[in-house]
Design a protein that fits this description.
This is TonB-dependent receptor. Keywords: Cell outer membrane, Ion transport, Iron, Iron transport, Membrane, Receptor, TonB box, Transmembrane, Transmembrane beta strand, Transport. By secondary structure, this protein is an all-beta fold. The chain has 1 helix and 13 strands; from the N terminus they run βββαββββββββββ. The strands form 4 sheets. A 7-stranded antiparallel sheet has the order 1-2-5-6-9-10-13, with no helix packed on it. The chain has a two-stranded antiparallel ribbon with strand order 3-4. Strands 7-8 form a two-stranded antiparallel ribbon. A hairpin with a 2-residue loop joins β9 and β10.
Length: about 180
């Protein structure tokens, strides 16, 4: 099923700063105001179709577009310093946020994915060896173990299925570029 038409208006901005040689800060944001301009004859959500005497279709004109959070932003900061033996070490932090969105084209309330924010941290060391560059880092994603849904969808007979986001995850990255 295709929606008749929709409109998406918005703005995005990003700023990258390096206030000193050792500090870098990045901030980005997106505002997305997206809605159906003409969606008469839409599939109705389960809360409507499972009610007594449901309509054959619904009119979602003027409603928010699915899978389109209104606000998304992230910010990160990194501090690095020179260490012994020509090594450069760093620590970093990142925060990312996404506002709520509908998970399905019928805008079912059951599939409304709540907004969430996630914090991540990292630390590591960089260097050069035999003509290549290497990095060793440890990182912690979803540092505060936020429970969140990446997507929710309609199932059979009014049920809802979904994909949960990653829990707190600790990892190590070793990279070599030659």
């Amino acid at each position: 099923m295709n929606a008749g038409s929709f409109r998406s208006r918005g703005a995005e901005a990003s700023v990258a700063l390096a206030p000193t040689r050792d500090w870098s800060v990045d901030v980005a944001a997106v505002y997305n105001d997206a809605w159906y301009t003409d969606y008469d004859g839409a599939r109705c959500p389960p809360d409507v179709t499972l009610a007594p005497k449901p309509p054959a279709s619904c009119n979602l004109s003027g409603e928010r577009l699915f899978n389109a959070p209104r606000l998304t932003y992230n910010a990160s900061a990194r501090y690095s310093w020179n260490g012994a033996g020509g090594l450069r070490s760093f620590v970093g932090a990142r925060y990312a946020y996404r506002s709520w969105m509908y998970g399905t084209v019928d805008n079912a309330e059951f599939t409304r994915v709540p907004g969430y924010g996630l914090a991540s941290f990292s630390a590591g060391t960089e260097g050069t060896s035999q003509g290549g560059a290497w990095t060793a880092s440890i990182w912690l994603n979803n540092a505060f173990d936020k429970t969140y849904w990446r997507r929710l969808v309609n199932g059979d007979y009014g049920s809802v299925g979904g994909w949960r986001g990653e829990p707190r995850t600790l990892g190590v990255t070793l990279a070599y570029q030659y």
